[in-house]
Structure of YPDG domain-containing protein:
Amino acid sequence: MFRLPNSNGARAPARSSPPGTTFSVADIDGVTIVGDTGEIAVEPVAGQATGELLIPVTVTYPDESVDEINRYGPR
């Protein structure tokens, strides 16, 4: 899994999520996420400024509880 930094700049630790956990991101050009693993891919978009991109991720657990986390990715 490609681990993007947390919002505090530290690398996100690889950890297991309970089976049935899903991940989603808002509609951001060039950003995709694998819904059942949380793996994020960031593809360059023509005309978009370079630098870091804040990626809000919604994590939904099997008990239907939800966490909102932030990751940063390159633009």
